[in-house]
Amino acid sequence: MGKGCITVIKYFLFLFNLLFFIFGALIMGFGLWVLFDNQSFIAVLQESSDTVKVASYILIAVGSLSMAMGFFGCIGAIYEIRCLLGLYFTCLLLILIAQVTAGVSIYLQREPLKYEMAKILKDMIINYTGENRTTEHTWDYVQRTMKCCGWTSPGNWSENVLIKDNSENLYPCSCRNESLPGTDIRDVGMCEHLSSETPIYQTGCAASVEKWLLDNCGVILGICVGVAVIQLLGMILSMCLCKSVVQEDYTKVPKY
Q1: Rounded CA gap, 111 and 179, in Å?
Q2: Does this model's pTM top 0.85?
Q3: Cα three-residue angle 61-111-118, rounded to 5 degrees
Q4: Which of 1, 56, 65, 235 has a 20 to 30 Å separation from 187 between CA atoms?
Q5: Where does the sequence pass through the membrane (predicted)?
Q6: CA distance 54 to 230
């Protein structure tokens, strides 16, 4: 392989590793958002299920490892170190296998995950008091911003312990339809209605929430596909460069 061709491969590999480092940072950032976010629907699931927390830790780990591999790949490419290029290829292959396995597992388990999500939310609605600042207030935020009530329908709230055991006509304040006449509008907790009809939204949140999840899954899926393409290109280029390196020259590596 000509010297000019090797130089082109080396700098292309450096560029791909830089992109790989950036995509790894995006995946890690998404994992941190899932772990620490308390203002979206993810917080409701996270409080009630360990699955989301485990997924966030996996995303953080994969993102961190991708960033580390991008860094080592850059060093191996620029200074033509065969051991780093070989280690880089092996780790890329393992990460790619893990990503494909995780994607297939999630796809095969989508129906059980959907059922688990519905069960978590219905249990939360039954035990809702308006005092849990994380889960319940986040669900209030979801109902208020998506203009919906309950999971499948407003009828889910008829099973709530406060509504069932109270003689007053209560409804969740976050379900309040502002276009209808009624009592003062509050963001969280229970409100009392005096009219014969409850001034709430008449549609459940299931369709809106599923659309929200699909939109966000599309973003993370696009990132993962981008990372996978860069991984494959990085593996091909690293092998080409590794085969072209006849003897390693460690004097190129900067000493600190």
Answers
A1: 36
A2: no
A3: 90
A4: 56
A5: 12-36, 56-79, 86-108, 219-242
A6: 26
